[in-house]
C-alpha cells in the first residue's frame, strides 16, 4: 500500500465496468454495453442477485477482503438491491478502500 | 434468463413504447457466419424478415427491432462466430443447439423473493384471465405462482415449443406435475381452491439465501441447532432454513465473511425435516391426496435429480419426500444437461435462469425466461420464439400476430410483418394468375428448403422466407383479445349410455348369449374404444364451434364402458391452449384433441404393399360368420381381407353405420392379424393410442376405403401398430402407436371367447371328471372372462366376494359349468352357454347347479375341489349321488416326513405301492386324497385313517382303492395327473357317493 488515498472514482468505475463486461461475456467487444454510474444492475444489465456473488468476489480479489460487498448489501432493503445502480457500487468501493487506507496510514 | 438490452440508459419499458420496431423480428439462416454477417450488413433498414422456416443446418441469427444500426451490431457479433444468446435482444448460434439434437426443458419457478409477472396481455392473447395475483399470504402467493406458471406453459405450447422434460424449483415442481398430466388440472385447481390459503399450517421458519456453495453453507450451519440446507440451488447459491433468530445470526456472520446473504420474505419450512410434523394435513389434503397418472411428458424431480417414477404410488411417495428433503436444483439441471437438454425455458417469472446459468457456466446452453417484468408478456414470448428458432427450433411466429396481440405497453400497433407478408402473397397471387409459373414458384416457396427462400430474399430484400400459411385477413370488429382463432371453451355435459339410445351397442357385446336371451346385461354391450374417441372428438368440436378435429392424441382407454345396465357418463372438455383441449369421458377414456380451421394438407403417402404378403386365410365373410370377431352388423366393416404378412395387414373397409365404426374396423384388423399370426393369444383390445390424425373429413357410411396396419411392436402383453385409412387413394386418417392389450389365454380360452355355447376352458379327463388350470394371469384378463361365464346374479355375488377370494370363486364356477355343459352335450343337448347355468354353494360347501331362463338340467349334484391354480369338478350325472372330489399335490417334501410314518401307515403305503407301482411320494399323495374324500363322506367318524385298503382294479388310468375301517369300506378312484403346462403332479380322488359297503 503505497498510497493513503481512496481509489479515485473514475478508476473504480473503470474497474467495475471491466468486471461487469466480463460477467456479461462482452469484454473486449467494441461498442459493447455502455455502463455509466446511472446504469441499473438488474434492469439494464439483466444481471441477477447471483451475479452479485461473482462481482463481490472479483471486488474482493481486486481490492482486498475489506471491500465487502456482502456487508454493503446487508444495509440495503431488498428493493434497493434490485434497483442497484453502478454509481452506488463505485461509491461503495471508493468509501471502503478509503476507510481501510486511512486506518492503515 | 434473458439479459435485457440497453442502449444508453433507456430501460426496456421505454423501448417498448417505441413504435413498430419492437414487434419486428429479423430471422436469418445461412451456410456460414460470414454469409449471415454480409446479409445483416446489407439488410435494408426497417424491412422485416420472417424467414422462420429455413430447415437447413448452419448458423442462425435473430434480432428484435432490426434497425440499420442494430443489424450492423448484429453483424459484428456474428463475425466473431461465438454464440450470443439474448443480450441486446440478439441471438446468434453458430451451431444451433436443437438442430444438433439438444432437448428443451421447461422449468417452473417456485416462490422467490420477488414476484413481478407481466401477464395481463398474455392472458388476453390466450383468451383467459388471471385474476388478481395476490401475494399477501404464503398460500395466496403460491396460488398466484401456479397461475402464472400454468399460463406461461400454455403460452409456450401455443408458440409451438415442445418440451422434452419438465421440472420445477421447489413447489414449482407441482406445476411441472400438473403440466405433465400427473396431477389432473381439475383436481389440482380444486386442491388450491379448497385450501384455506390464509391459514396454511407450516412451521414458522425463516429461509436465508446464501451466495455460496452448498458445501460451504453446510459447514456454516454445522453445530447450529435447527438450521439445515433446504435448497442446493447452484454452485454459488444455497438456501438454508431454521428458526428466525439463529438464521439472522448466521446471515450476519456470513456477511462479515463476504458471503452475500439475505433472508427471504416468507416462512414455510418446506423441504426440511422440520416439515415432517406438518405432513399429516399435507398428505390428507395436499398433493399426495390427489389422483395421479403417469406423466405424458417426462418430469424430473429436484429431490432425486432423476426422472419421476411412473407408478402413481411411487410418485406419491416422492411428493412427500419433496417436502422434507432438500431441493437439489443444481444437480437436477446438471442431470438434465447430461440427458441432452440444451434449452432451458423458465415457464414463469423469476430468477431460475440465473441458477441454470450458474450451474452450466462452462457448458453450452440457452436459458430464457417466458416472462420478464421488464417488458410486455407477448414481447417476451416473441423473444422466446426468436431464441428457439436460432437454436433450430420451429416456433410458430404467426400466433404472435401483432394484429391480435393486445399491446399492453401501449406500443403503437403497426403490423409491418403482416403487411409485408400480405403484400408479398398478394403479389404472388396476382402474378400467378397471369403467369402459371409464378404460382408454381409460390408453391415451391411454401415447400422447399432455405436455398429457394434465399433466392427470393436476394431478389427482394423485403422478401419473406418460406411461409406455409396463406395470409389471413382479419375481419373488422373481430374480437381482438381471443387470438387468431376463437379459443375453445370448457364444456361439460352428461352422456346417457344405454342400449335403448345406442342400440348399435348390442352389436358390440363381449359375451355372446343364446338367441333371444332376455337380459341385455349378460351380453355385456360395451362402447368400443373408437366409439369413446368419437364422443370425445364430438365434445371437443362442440367446445370449439366451426372448427374440425385434426388430431386426437394421448388416448387412454381406462375402463370398459358398459351400456347395460345403462349409465350417465360425464363428458368434460377443458381447453389446454388455443388449439387443443383435453377431453374426458368419465373415468373411462380421455384424450387430447387438436382443433383446426380446416384439415391440414400434410397427409403422408399411402404405404406400399409390405414384403412377404400372402392371401389371408380368413376371408372377410368367414371372419364374422365363424365368430372370429364378436362384432354384429353395425360394426362389421371389413369387406375384403386383401393381404397379410408377418408384420402387416391390408383390407377393404366398407364404413359401417355405428359411431366410431370406421376406426373400430382398424382395431378388428389388428384382431385378424393376431388370429392368423399368433393364435395363442389372439384376443386383444385397445389400451392406448398415441395419435390419430385426420387429414380429411371422415368418409360417409357405405363408402369403401382402404385400411392398413403395420405392427411396430409385439410382446405377450401388447401389440402396437400404426395404421392408415385411405380414401380414394389418399390417406384420410393416420394412426401412430395404437396399443392393444392382449388377453391371456390359450386356444381354449380363445374358443370360448368366439363360441361360448360349444366350448369349454376346462378339460374333461378320462373317467369323466374335469380339470381346469387357470388360463390367465392378470386381473384384466380374468375379468374379461367374468361376463362370459357369469350371469347377472352371479356377477353380483362375484363383486360381493372379498377381492382375494374372487379368483378361486370364479374358477370353481368355471369348472362346474364346463363339467355340467360337458354332461349335457354328452346327453345330446345343443349349445349351452355358461350363463344358462347358475351355480350355488351352500354353507356346508355343497354345490348345486340350476338352469336359467328355460334351461332344464334337473337335480345335478356336483363336487369341486381346488389346489394351487388347479380346480377339479366331478358330476356323476344322477340325482341321488353324493359325489366328492379332492385334489392334492404330489410333494417330494412328503418324503422328509416319511421317517415318522407309523408302522401301520407304512404297511398301508407298502401295500398301495405294491398294487400300483407308485413312487413313494405318489403313493402318499394318493392315500392322502383318498382319505380326504372318505373322511368328508363320514364326518365325525374316527379311526378310518389307518385301516386297510384294497385295490379295486384300474380303469382310465385311475386306481380304484377301497378305503376300509373295521366295519365299512368305501371305493375311491384316484388319478395322478401332470399339471397342465407345468412340472408338478397332482393326485385327484373322487367318489360318486355310492353307499359304503358293510364289512
Automatic annotation (TrEMBL), chain A:
Keyword vocabulary terms for this entry: Phosphopantetheine, Phosphoprotein
A Pfam family hit: PP-binding
Domain Carrier residues, every copy: 10-89
Name of the featured protein: Acyl carrier protein
UniProt lineage: Bacteria, Bacillati, Actinomycetota, Actinomycetes, Pseudonocardiales
UniProtKB/TrEMBL annotation, chain B:
Gene3D superfamilies noted in UniProt: Malonyl-Coenzyme A Acyl Carrier Protein, domain 2, Polyketide synthase dehydratase
Transmembrane regions listed in the UniProt entry: none
Region Disordered, annotated ranges: 1-22, 41-60, 461-490
Pfam families given in the database record: Acyl_transf_1
GO terms for MF: transferase activity
Domain of life: Bacteria
Ranges for domain Malonyl-CoA:ACP transacylase (MAT): 107-384
SUPFAM superfamilies registered for this protein in UniProt: FabD/lysophospholipase-like, Probable ACP-binding domain of malonyl-CoA ACP transacylase
Biased composition (Basic residues): 464-482
Biased composition range(s): Basic and acidic residues: 41-57
SMART domains the record matches: PKS_AT
Protein name: Malonyl CoA-acyl carrier protein transacylase
Lineage of the species this protein comes from: Bacteria, Bacillati, Actinomycetota, Actinomycetes, Pseudonocardiales
Amino acid at each position: 500500500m503505497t498510497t493513503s488515498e481512496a481509489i479515485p472514482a473514475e478508476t473504480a468505475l473503470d474497474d467495475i465496468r471491466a468486471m461487469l463486461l466480463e460477467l456479461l461475456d462482452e469484454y473486449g467487444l467494441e461498442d459493447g454495453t455502455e455502463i455509466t454510474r446511472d446504469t441499473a444492475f438488474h434492469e439494464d444489465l439483466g444481471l441477477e442477485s447471483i451475479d452479485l456473488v461473482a462481482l463481490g468476489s472479483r471486488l474482493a480479489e481486486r481490492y482486498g477482503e475489506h471491500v465487502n460487498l456482502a456487508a454493503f448489501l446487508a444495509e440495503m432493503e431488498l428493493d434497493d438491491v434490485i434497483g442497484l445502480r453502478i454509481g452506488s457500487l463505485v461509491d461503495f468501493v471508493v468509501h471502503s478502500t478509503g476507510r481501510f487506507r486511512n486506518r492503515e496510514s | 434468463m434473458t439479459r435485457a438490452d440497453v442502449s444508453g440508459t433507456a430501460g426496456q419499458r421505454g423501448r417498448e413504447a417505441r413504435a413498430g420496431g419492437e414487434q419486428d423480428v429479423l430471422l436469418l439462416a445461412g451456410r456460414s457466419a460470414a454469409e449471415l454477417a454480409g446479409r445483416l450488413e446489407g439488410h435494408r433498414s426497417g424491412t422485416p424478415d420472417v424467414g422462420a422456416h429455413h430447415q437447413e443446418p448452419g448458423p442462425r441469427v435473430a434480432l428484435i427491432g432490426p434497425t440499420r444500426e442494430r443489424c450492423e451490431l448484429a453483424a459484428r457479433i456474428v463475425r466473431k462466430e461465438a454464440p450470443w444468446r439474448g443480450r441486446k435482444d440478439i441471438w446468434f448460434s453458430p451451431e444451433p443447439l436443437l438442430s444438433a439434437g439438444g432437448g428443451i426443458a421447461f422449468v417452473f419457478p417456485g416462490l422467490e423473493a420477488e414476484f413481478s409477472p407481466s401477464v395481463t396481455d398474455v392472458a388476453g392473447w390466450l383468451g383467459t384471465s388471471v385474476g388478481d395475483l395476490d401475494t399477501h399470504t404464503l398460500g395466496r402467493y403460491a396460488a398466484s405462482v401456479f397461475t402464472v406458471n400454468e399460463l406461461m406453459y400454455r403460452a409456450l405450447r401455443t408458440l409451438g415449443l415442445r418440451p422434452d422434460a419438465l421440472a420445477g424449483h421447489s413447489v414449482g415442481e407441482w406445476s411441472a406435475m400438473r403440466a405433465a398430466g400427473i396431477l389432473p388440472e381439475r383436481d389440482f385447481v380444486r386442491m388450491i381452491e379448497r385450501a384455506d390459503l390464509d391459514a396454511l399450517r407450516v412451521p414458522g421458519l425463516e429461509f436465508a439465501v446464501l451466495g455460496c456453495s452448498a458445501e460451504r453453507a453446510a459447514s456454516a450451519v454445522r453445530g447450529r441447532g435447527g438450521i439445515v440446507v433446504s435448497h442446493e440451488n447452484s454452485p454459488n447459491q444455497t438456501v438454508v432454513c431454521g428458526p428466525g433468530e439463529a438464521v439472522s445470526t448466521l446471515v450476519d456472520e456470513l456477511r462479515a465473511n463476504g458471503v452475500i446473504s439475505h433472508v427471504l420474505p416468507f416462512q414455510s419450512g418446506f423441504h426440511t425435516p422440520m416439515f415432517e410434523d406438518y405432513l399429516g394435513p399435507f398428505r390428507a389434503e395436499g398433493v399426495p391426496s390427489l389422483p395421479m397418472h403417469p406423466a405424458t411428458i417426462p418430469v424430473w424431480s429436484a429431490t432425486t435429480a432423476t426422472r419421476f417414477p411412473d407408478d402413481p404410488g411411487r410418485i406419491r411417495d416422492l411428493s412427500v419426500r419433496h417436502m422434507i428433503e432438500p431441493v437439489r436444483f443444481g444437480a437436477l439441471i446438471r442431470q438434465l444437461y447430461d440427458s441432452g437438454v440444451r434449452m432451458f425455458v423458465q415457464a414463469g417469472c423469476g430468477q431460475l435462469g440465473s441458477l441454470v446459468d450458474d450451474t452450466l457456466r462452462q457448458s453450452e446452453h440457452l436459458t430464457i425466461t417466458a416472462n420478464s417484468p421488464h417488458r410486455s408478456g407477448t414481447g417476451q414470448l416473441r423473444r422466446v420464439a426468436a431464441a428457439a428458432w436460432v437454436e433450430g427450433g420451429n416456433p410458430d411466429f404467426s400466433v404472435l400476430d401483432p394484429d391480435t396481440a393486445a399491446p399492453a405497453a401501449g406500443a403503437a400497433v403497426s403490423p409491418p410483418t403482416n403487411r409485408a407478408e400480405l403484400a408479398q402473397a398478394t403479389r404472388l397471387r396476382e402474378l400467378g394468375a397471369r403467369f402459371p409459373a409464378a404460382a408454381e414458384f409460390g408453391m415451391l416457396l411454401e415447400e422447399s428448403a432455405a436455398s429457394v427462400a434465399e433466392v427470393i430474399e436476394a431478389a427482394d430484400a423485403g422478401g419473406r422466407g418460406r411461409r406455409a400459411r396463406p395470409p389471413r385477413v382479419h375481419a373488422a370488429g373481430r374480437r381482438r383479445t381471443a387470438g387468431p382463432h376463437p379459443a375453445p371453451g370448457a364444456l361439460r355435459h352428461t352422456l346417457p349410455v344405454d342400449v335403448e339410445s345406442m342400440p348399435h351397442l348390442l352389436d358390440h357385446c363381449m359375451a355372446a348369449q343364446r338367441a333371444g336371451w332376455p337380459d341385455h346385461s349378460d351380453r355385456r354391450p360395451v362402447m368400443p374404444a373408437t366409439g369413446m374417441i368419437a364422443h370425445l372428438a364430438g365434445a371437443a368440436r362442440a367446445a370449439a364451434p366451426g372448427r374440425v378435429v385434426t388430431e386426437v392424441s394421448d388416448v387412454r382407454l381406462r375402463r370398459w364402458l358398459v351400456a347395460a345396465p345403462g349409465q350417465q357418463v360425464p363428458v368434460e372438455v377443458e381447453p389446454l391452449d388455443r388449439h387443443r383441449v383435453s377431453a374426458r369421458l368419465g373415468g373411462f377414456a380421455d384424450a387430447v384433441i387438436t382443433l383446426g380451421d380446416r384439415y391440414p394438407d400434410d397427409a403422408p403417402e399411402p404405404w406400399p404393399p409390405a414384403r412377404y404378403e400372402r392371401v389371408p386365410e380368413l376371408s372377410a365373410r368367414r371372419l364374422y360368420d365363424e365368430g372370429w370377431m364378436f362384432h354384429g352388423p353395425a360394426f362389421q366393416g371389413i369387406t375384403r381381407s386383401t393381404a397379410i404378412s408377418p408384420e402387416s395387414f391390408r383390407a377393404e373397409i366398407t364404413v359401417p353405420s355405428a359411431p366410431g365404426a370406421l376406426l373400430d374396423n382398424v382395431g378388428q384388423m389388428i384382431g385378424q392379424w393376431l388370429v392368423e399370426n399368433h393364435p395363442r393369444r389372439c384376443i386383444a383390445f385397445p389400451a392406448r393410442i398415441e395419435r390419430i390424425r385426420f387429414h380429411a373429413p371422415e368418409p360417409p357410411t357405405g363408402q369403401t376405403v382402404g385400411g392398413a396396419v403395420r405392427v411396430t411392436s409385439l410382446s405377450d402383453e401388447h401389440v402396437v401398430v400404426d395404421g392408415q385409412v385411405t380414401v380414394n387413394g389418399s390417406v384420410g386418417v393416420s394412426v401412430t402407436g395404437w396399443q392393444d392389450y392382449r388377453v391371456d389365454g390359450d386356444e381354449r380360452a380363445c374358443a370360448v371367447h368366439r363360441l361360448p355355447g360349444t366350448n369349454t376352458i376346462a378339460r374333461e379327463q378320462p373317467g369323466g371328471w374335469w380339470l381346469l388350470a387357470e388360463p390367465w394371469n392378470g386381473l384384466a384378463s380374468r375379468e374379461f372372462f367374468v361376463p362370459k361365464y357369469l350371469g347377472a346374479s352371479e356377477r353380483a355375488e362375484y363383486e360381493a366376494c372379498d377381492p382375494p377370494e374372487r379368483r378361486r370363486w370364479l374358477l370353481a364356477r368355471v369348472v362346474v359349468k364346463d363339467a355340467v355343459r360337458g354332461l349335457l352335450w354328452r346327453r345330446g343337448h345343443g349349445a349351452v352357454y355358461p350363463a344358462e347355468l347358475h351355480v350355488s354353494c351352500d354353507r356346508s360347501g355343497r354345490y348345486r347347479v340350476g338352469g336359467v331362463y328355460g334351461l332344464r338340467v334337473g337335480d345335478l349334484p356336483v363336487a369341486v375341489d381346488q389346489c394351487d391354480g388347479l380346480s377339479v369338478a366331478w358330476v356323476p350325472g344322477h340325482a341321488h349321488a353324493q359325489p366328492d372330489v379332492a385334489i392334492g399335490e404330489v410333494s417330494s417334501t412328503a418324503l422328509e416326513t416319511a421317517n415318522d410314518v407309523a408302522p401301520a401307515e407304512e404297511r398301508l403305503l407298502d401295500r398301495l405301492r405294491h398294487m400300483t407301482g407308485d413312487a413313494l411320494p405318489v403313493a402318499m399323495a394318493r392315500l392322502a386324497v383318498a382319505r380326504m374324500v372318505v373322511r368328508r363322506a363320514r364326518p365325525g367318524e374316527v379311526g378310518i385313517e389307518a385301516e386297510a385298503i384294497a385295490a379295486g382294479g384300474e380303469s382310465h388310468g385311475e386306481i380304484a382303492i377301497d378305503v376300509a375301517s373295521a366295519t365299512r369300506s368305501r371305493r375311491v378312484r384316484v388319478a395322478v395327473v401332470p399339471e397342465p403346462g407345468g412340472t408338478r403332479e397332482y393326485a385327484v380322488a373322487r367318489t360318486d357317493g355310492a353307499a359304503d359297503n358293510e364289512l
